[in-house]
Design goal:
Layout: E1 4-12, E2 17-27, H1 31-40, E3 46-58, H2 61-68, H3 71-77, E4 90-100, E5 105-116, E6 121-126, E7 130-131, H4 141-159
Antiparallel strand pairs: 1-2, 1-4, 2-3, 4-5, 5-6, 5-7
Helix pairs in contact: 2-4
């Protein structure tokens, strides 16, 4: 595990409102932790603080466009046959990252949504969890990971104040998310 802040989940609802979950990871430097580490030769203990930011401010175009680039990967992972023009019927409404993205030891689940034209209702489904980067059962994992890194970068900009209605004050002023 690496110290710092990492985004764990990015979700955009049908109205364009955003929810971002992230963690802040710190080395436990308490006396008890230090004694335990010295006596056992264990790895250092980390303290993980979890945060969730949900805002009525709409996602900016770059964030939405970055998420759209994941549609083809999601449908391939689910082994769904599609034509390129049919991609427009699908949206990626959430990305959930497990593991340590900074150390490139992470897995991802993509949530796909599609409006059923006959009823006008939205259906959602999740991809199976896929290992990111090189060592994956999904042959295009490295390419997908680069797109996910771009989505994470755009989410950081959103937290920093970039939104659809023009730049605003940061949602989380002290946030210094580590780069991917």
């Amino acid at each position: 595990m690496k110290e710092g802040q990492q985004i764990r989940k990015i979700a955009i609802d049908a109205k364009g409102k955003v929810k971002i979950d992230f963690v802040e990871i710190h080395l436990d430097e308490s006396e008890v932790s230090q004694v335990t580490k010295a006596l056992t030769d264990d790895e250092p203990n980390f303290i993980v603080n979890e945060y969730s930011v949900k805002s009525p401010r709409l996602a900016h175009k770059d964030l939405k466009d970055a998420m759209k680039k994941l549609r083809k990967f999601a449908l391939e992972i689910c082994e769904m046959i599609f034509e390129t023009k049919a991609l427009t019927f699908y949206d990626i409404c959430a990305i959930k990252i497990n593991g340590d993205i900074a150390l490139r030891q992470s897995r991802v689940i993509l949530t796909v949504s599609k409006e059923v034209r006959r009823t006008g209702k939205e259906i959602k489904f999740n991809t199976p969890e896929v290992t990111m980067y090189g060592d994956s059962e999904y042959e295009r994992a490295s390419e997908m990971s680069k797109v996910i890194e771009n989505v994470v970068s755009e989410a950081k900009l959103y937290l920093g104040g970039k939104c659809a209605d023009g730049d605003q004050l940061p949602l989380f002023p002290k946030l210094e998310l580590s780069t991917v």
